[in-house]
Amino acid sequence: MDEFGYLNLDRKGAKLLFQIFTEREERKATAVATNSPFTEWDKTFGDARLCAAIADRITFRCTLIQTGTESYRYQATQEALFSPN
Fold it and tell me: Which DSSP string corresponds to 50-69?
């Protein structure tokens, strides 16, 4: 999943996402990419308990890779604009 947390979900959407992560737990690998820190996820899901449950499913036995706060697209654009070539 790319841009996770970019759009807010209604309760039905958040529950569906919870079901997907629950079904995949310990069966299939799931990659999630987001620019949003965990502290902002409650805004995406609109329910703190459901947010905590989803975060729990996503982070159970996971490998968390933090690349920084800037978007790689933004960084590539800046490099292209200010490149001496």
Answer: HHHHHHHHHHTT-------S
Task: Provide DSSP, 2-43.
Answer: -STTSS---HHHHHHHHHHHHHHTTTS------SS-GGGHHH
* pLDDT tens track for 54-65: 889 888 888 888
- Nearest 5 degrees, angle CA 74-CA 36-CA 14? 130
Alpha-carbon distances of 78 from 21, 67, 75, rounded to whole Å = 36, 17, 5
Instruction: Give the model confidence (pLDDT) of 1-27 as tens digits.
Output: 777 777 788 889 888 888 988 888 878
Gyration radius of the chain's alpha carbons:
16
CB 83 within 8 A of CB 47: no
